[in-house]
Amino acid sequence: MMRDLLLSSVWYVNVGFLTYFAVANLVYTVLMVLSLYRVALHSKYVASRGYTSFAQSPFTPPIALLVPAHNEEDAIVQTVHSVLDLNYARKEVVVIDDGSTDGTLQRLIDEFDLERIDLIYRRSVDASQPLACYRSRTLAELVVISIAHGGKSAALNVAVNVARAPYVCTVDADCVIERDALLRLVAPVMRFPQPTAVSGGIVRIANGCEIRNGRIQRIDLPKSWIERCQIVEYIRTFLFGRPGWAALNATFIASGAFCLLNKEAVIGAGGFNSDCVTEDIDILARIRRYLIAQNRDDRIVFTTDPICWTEAPRDLRMLARQRRRWQVGLVQTVLRNHDMVLNAKYGAAGLLSMPFHGYLEGFGAFLEASGTLLVPIFYLLGLLSFPHFAAFIFLAVGYGTLLSIGSIVLEEMTVARYPTNRHLWTLLMYGVLENVGYRQILAFFRAHGVIKYLCRSRKWEKVTHSGL
Amino acid sequence: MPTLDSPLVLAIALCVLVAIVNLSLTIFVVLRRAHRRQYFALKDQARDQLTGTVHEACRGSRDALRALKSYDDGATRDAIEELLLACVSANTHEIITHLLAELGYVARWKKRAFPRHHRGSVLMTRAADCIRKSRVFAVRRAIAVGHLGYLHRSIAAPLMIQALEDPSPLVISVAADSLARTGDPTGLTPLLDLLRRATDEVDVAPERGVKAALVTLRPDAHDVAKAYSRLESKRFRMAILDVLHELVGRVNTITKLSNTDLLDSLQDADFEIRARAVRLIPVLTVERAAVRTALKDGSPLVRLRAVNVASVSGEEVCRHVHDEQWRVREAAVAELLKAHDDRRHQLLDTLLSTSDRYAAQQIMQQWQLSGELRLCLARLDEENALCDQLVCRKAVELGMDSMLIDALQPATPEALLMRLLEITHISQHPERASRLALLAQCSTERVSAVARKQLQQFEGTRTEVVGAA
Asked: Of A3, A48, A167, which to mutate for an interface test with B (greatest number of B Cβ within 10 Å)?
């Protein structure tokens, strides 16, 4: 009797796991199909038309690049060089030194010949008072602001207050931006009849690449498996996950590492939220809410060709911190905006994207990690039949390889940034391998993030970088 | 208890299926890369080999044309297309268009750009229109329209005008851009019509793109001004004013615009129209009184724009340094700084004499941004530096003395340090104490003594303030 009850419970639990994976895979497949044709055509169009007309147009809007930096002395100079060198005529660069305790500010002062000035500071969004302002003697478009450490959101809010342009572009201090990326990012603003509130771009992993003077000189793959798995993961996320959601007009996440925002929408949404650990997800949700409240049809778009290269964690400890933080932020944002979930007023974002991200990717991580742990144990204890176990393996691992390989195909058909055959074979190999071990490890990190959130431990976990 | 035996086969079948799909994708991507390598190698080779032939064909050689016609593989044809398009210039445009037509490129592009319409029921036509409008299906048409835009204006312009009727905003914007690049004057009316549609209707074409196309076309500003009418929608009127502003900014010699409606726009009830119209004052047949009126406008945006043109008209911008809106103050200061010496002196006088703290702060900020304060600072120890001293004292008074405090360091020349210490002795800057402490240990006796004295005073003042609190 007891055994029957146990078997029955295990069966139902396993069906729950299978359903979770089946639904997730179904959604990923739909996104992949949606983005496949779209991304390929977009690349073809871009190859044919280019961006020179935007570069020359007097109606291309000015953009302020906001670079918040906290203890980034190794990367900040490269990043600022990369941002200053962008092919975009009307730009200003606002670097915010967020109370760094290392030599970040001094590196900037030395490299860009900064001098101390006093700017009149006007608050459009709630933010702290700057401690010091600097301007470059040689580069009129560069302003550096020093503030007491308050986190990335606080730094971004100060930058929003200082910026003059109608569009702001957030750039992480450990990023290198491709030269035409800003023109590509602003393309939706120029191309679509409707106004654009947010335009997101792609983030790629720079580990292994050779970087000089803020430019990628040679693209290569890193040596360690953990970095290579992340490369495949990023390709999957940015080439079919986000374009797929964008095709449905349901973009919920745009990476804060490189994202264009309409300043007026940011101010209307109340600026970046300091309480939220992933300010980029949070601001998007609040901008969407603001636009709907104002009855505006501004677009939130995602494009696959503006590329920003960033440094990924090189070891499991840093990776765990990063993923826990992302997961806490994801769950936090969805729960804070729970009235948007399954709310038809917010369109596909409310009906599809938010429930998927919040419940399937957010809380679902807990289910994924438990499944990964329990199903093999059930099978080994003889509580689960082989077909069930095989079905689980198929859905949790096998199908994932298909999605990963599919995204590498998409990468090759569109941006094709990895030049040699060796790169292609390595990526294809890791397309299979990252589904065996890496994804499961990530599931545990993400589940840990959910637990941390539920236990009200929502602090920002610092991911240290060794520099690009 | 539910049992599942048959799923074993299913599970294995699914795993095999995934393996097969993965393998197929891998083979596809590897073959594709190999194919693309081969394609680019062939194209490069063809480009190298056929450069001379293409040049000969451009000079009218029939033999060269025959030779080019004989190639039918994709890579070579693409290379020929690229070479021909790269040779386009004012002299060769006509013959290259002829060559492209002879070689069959034009027919191919036309076929793609203007696919045949199948007439059916209303529902079917609507569905077809929806599909045509979709961005995904419009990309191929947009690329083809873009290629057609490279042809000689006599052929390209009518085709582009036809493409402006396409339901997709993407195709329309490409056609507008290409039409503008042809420089054909017949393009003006369709582009103005398109601008009207883009501003009046939803989802027709990007307004910015159409405005940019109108500017690229470089029509006579008078012809564009004719389109301005008070009967048009607000957005259209604003767009026309934007285009006119860009056009008159690019063309140096322009006679005055005299459209009555355009002149009336300066008194329009809508401030956004007025603000745009004000930017055109220098080319409107209005008197300078219009600038004065605009400078007194209730809308800060209108005043801001008026300040920007006022320097051209020679108006008294200085008064607007005291404007209640900071953007107007800032624009006024920036304009005065850009102007010649008299105006700068006027600005300096205002800085030193005004009791309006906001105006003074604004001037001081621009003074710093333009590097003027740095120059004042560098000249402080000179004999006749009274004016520079006054500016620096004002900076201290306004609490905008970071640059001066920053200069309080042992490396600064002694004479300058002494002067700085004297000027900054009333400064409340948070970093002053640490700078004084540093200077107190300075090897120069005089500097060190003054710094120690000021540090004691500073500490004393702070104690008093804390005590009072």
From this structure: A48
Q: How many CB atoms lie within 10 A of CB B410?
A: 16
Please give the residue that has the higher pLDDT: either A213 or A111.
A111
Q: ipTM value of the model?
A: 0.83
* Six token digits for residue A37: 């044709």
Nearest to A202 by CA among A83, A329, A306, A319: A306
Q: Do residues B217 and B180 make contact, with C-beta atoms less than 8 angstroms apart?
A: yes
Instruction: Give SS3 for A26.
Output: helix
Q: Taking a C-beta distance cutoff of 8 angstroms, is the pair A201, A306 a contact? A: yes
Q: Which two tokens stand for residue A278?
A: 């992933």
What distance in Å separates residue A198's CA from the closest CA in chain B?
A: 16
**Residue A346 DSSP one-character state:** G
Q: What DSSP letter does each residue of B407-442 carry, written as one string?
A: T-STTS-HHHHHHHHHHGGG---TTHHHHHHHHHT-
Tokens of B187: 């393009």
Which residues in chain A (62-101) have CB-CB distances under 8 A to chain B?
Answer: none
State the Cα angle at B279 between B276 and B285, rounded to 5°.
110
In the numeric block, which tokens belong to residue A67?
Answer: 């670079």
Does pLDDT of A274 surpass 50? yes
Facing residue for B15 by CB, picked from A4, A193, A394: A394
Are A297 and A307 spatial neighbours (Cβ–Cβ below 8 Å)? no
In degrees, rounded to 5, the angle at the alpha carbon of residue A461 between the alpha carbons of residues A456 and A462 is: 165
Nearest residue of B to residue A424 by CA position? B30
* A307 secondary structure, DSSP code: E
CA gap B250, B269 in Å, rounded: 29
**Phi, psi for A130 (deg, rounded to 5):** -65, 150
Residues from chain A contacting residue B364 (CB–CB below 8 Å): 118
Tell which A residues from 187 to 206 touch B, by Cβ distance under 8 Å.
Answer: 189-194
d(C-alpha A450, C-alpha A233), whole Å: 20
Kind of pairing, strands A142-147 and A132-136? Answer: antiparallel
What is the rounded CA–CA span in Å between residue A140 and residue B334? 14
CB B203 within 8 Å of CB B169: yes
Number of residues that this document lists for chain B:
469
Over the stretch A416-437, which tens digit does the pLDDT of each residue have? 888 888 999 999 999 989 988 8
Provide the token pair at B247.
């056009």
Residue matched to tokens 């604004």: B362
For residue B352, what are the CA distances in angstroms to A102, B267, B359?
40, 37, 11
What is the C-alpha separation between B63 and B81, in angstroms, rounded?
18
- Can you tell me whether residue A382 is helix, strand or coil? coil
Give the model confidence (pLDDT) of B389-421 as tens digits. 888 889 998 888 888 888 888 888 888 888 888
Which of B139, B147, B244, B247 would you mutate first to test chain A, the one with the most A CBs within 10 A?
A: B139
Burial B76-113 (b: 16+ CB within 10 A, else e): bbbbbbebbeebbeeebbebbbbbbeebebbeebbebb
Cβ pair A191:B170 closer than 8 A: yes
Q: Which two structure tokens, joined as six digits, stand for A24? A: 């997730």
What percentage of chain B reaches a pLDDT higher than 90? 14
Which residues of chain B have a CB within 8 Å of the CB of A117? Answer: 365, 368-369, 373, 402-403
Cβ distance A386 to A286 under 8 Å? no
Q: Do B29 and A193 touch (CB under 8 A)?
A: no
User: Which residues does residue A116 pair with via DSSP β-bridges, in sequence order?
Assistant: A134
- The C-alpha angle with vertex B423 and arms to B417 and B426, in degrees rounded to 5, equals 125
Are A424 and B362 in contact (CB < 8 Å)?
A: no
List helix spans (H) across B232-288. Answer: 234-250, 260-264, 271-278
Evaluate whether B128 touches B117 at the Cβ level (below 8 Å): yes
Query: Which token pair is B214?
Result: 């109108």
Give one DSSP letter per residue of A263-281, joined into a string: HHHHHHTTS--TT-S-HHH
Q: Of B8, B207, B365, which is closest to A119 when you measure between CB atoms?
A: B365
